[in-house]
Structures are given as C-alpha cells and as structure tokens.
Amino acid sequence: MGLAPPFGDALRTELGAPGRSRRLASSPRSRVWHIDLAQGPAVLKQIVAGPGADDAYAREAASLRIAARARPPVAPVLLAADPGQRVLVLEHLEHRGPAPDWIVGYAAALARLHATAGPGDAGALPRRQGPERADSDAFLRLARTLGVPAPVTAGAAGELEDLLDRLGRAPGHALLHGDPCPGNDLHTTDGIRFVDFEQACLGSGLTELAYLRIGFPTCWCVTSPPGPLLRRAEDAYRTQWRAATGTDVPGLAGGGLTDACAGWLLRGDALVQRARRDGTDHLARAARRDWTWGTATARQRLLHRLGAVATMTAGHPALAGVSDLTTAMHRRMLTRWPALRPVPAERPPATS
To answer: What is the structure's pLDDT at 274?
Structure first.
C-alpha cells in the first residue's frame, strides 16, 4: 500500500508537482491514489499491466471525454492523462450516503450519461456485444436439467433465436458505462457521478436501464426495488433522455426493455464476478451447487431474473414461449430449492 503514485514528467508539466498522496482501495485491475495538487485534491488511477489493460485504459479515457459533454456533469472531470503509464488524473468527488429513493436519481443520471454519445462517436469505443447462441443453448440445457417439459422448452427455442437477432440489431449509440453498479455511482452534493469506465462501450441504453428490473447483473450488489419506486426511476430515465436529446428512448416503445432483460437472463457469466467470466457454463454450475457473490447467491440471482422476465413477457406476442418457459423454470427452482429467498430490496450500507 506504500507504493508511490506514478506521476511522471508529462503530468508534472501539465499539473505541477503533486503534494501528499494516499493509496485508496480499488479492484485488482487498478491502483488508485488520493493526491494533493496546487489546484486542489484529485484522484490518480493507474490501470495495472496485464491482459486487456490497454483496452481498459483506452475505454476509460475515451468514455470520460465523451461523458464530459453532459451538463451538469455525470462523471469526474479528466484533468490529465499519461497513456504510456495508463494513468488518469481525475477530479476528486466527495461521496455522500445515497437517499432511500436513490435509484430515481441514478436512472436520471444514467440517461444523461447515455445521451452524451451519438452516431458521430462510432469507432471511439467498441459496440456492446450481447448474448450469443452458446448462451441460449446453455439456458435451454438448464431448463431440461430443471425438468421443464420438452414441449415448453421447444416452444421457446425459436423465440430465443429471434431474440438474439433483435439484440444484435438493437438501435442506439448510447455511451454505456459497462458496469453501472452501486459503488460505481458517487452521490455528491451536485448529483450522481459515475466512475470506473473500464468496460465502457456503445449501444442501446436499454441494456443498462434493464439493471433496475433484472437485478444489477454485473454487480456484487443486487437489489430489487419496489414496483412504485421502479416505475418512478424508469420515468425519470425517459424524461431525462427526452430532455437531453429531444427524442424518445430508442427501442423502448417496441419492447426493447423486455428484450434487454431477457438477454441478461441468458448470460450465465452474469452470475459471477468479472475475473471468473472465462467461458464456463455457470448456469450448469448453479444447477449443481449454489455460491454467494455479494448480496445474493447465484440461485437467488437466477430466480429473480426468471421472475422478472416471466412477468415482463406475459402477453408478449414475440415471447409467449419464453414466458411459458421462464414461468416453468421459476416454479421448478422453487420446488427444488424451497429455501431460496428474494434478493434484497434495499442497497446495503457498504455501497453508501
């Protein structure tokens, strides 16, 4: 923890010599310091060398520059960068405890973040990659493992193929955070700011609006807000998107949010933290044994997602078979593991 911050000549020329520094907690993929500069406190972040490090640095630097278009801000200001050392010097932000209805402000800020990018930013960041055929195949295998009758499984197979196609063509050039989880949102006196853009990409904003319904699928912190609060948050997203762009949210009127939630349900790697997303069939693992990640177990996460998608697809003309399948899988899980509890409704203090 005593490692000195990598504040090289290029940063000194631009920002002056740093004063005191203090190492902060961070993921294994980065090192982070609080540093004192002549113009005030700042945060220095270095992406650690390793597979994907250059890509993570490039994504974060590019996304921070795009996000800087938002007024009021939705991300820390990028003060300086040293690409050779994969270092970013960022505005220091004071985090307060989130309000009980924090997801309303979160959703509004997420919409404003998404709206900072447009068609002209194509190529600045990769396009988001959605679920693939291997994911839907693994999901159908899980259904068979749970004992869902073959006609029900077969009735959903073609719909899942069509779903993958729709997700691959989902409209939108939104700036996606890539991991907009509790803990990556700072609640400041000036509003919510997002940090840690190492997985940022471009695509449909519904991919991340879906986090509220599907249970923050890339996050250790899973919550399931009450229905009235969820509706307020989704309304706030729509309102802020229209205020920022003058248009309706692309794909929302055509069932895109349902598709996005169903897409997350197929992703078995959304049952484990990032370091373990290595191609393993985690849906099959969850059928064999349960494990805990953050605020919920893998089976709790899966049960919640099945319930959310079953509810959203009820009466959906293009996903009637998926509705039957997810309803049956949800019931089978409760029959097989009756002790499973709902995921938490509230955000834990650790992310405050």
So the answer is: 85
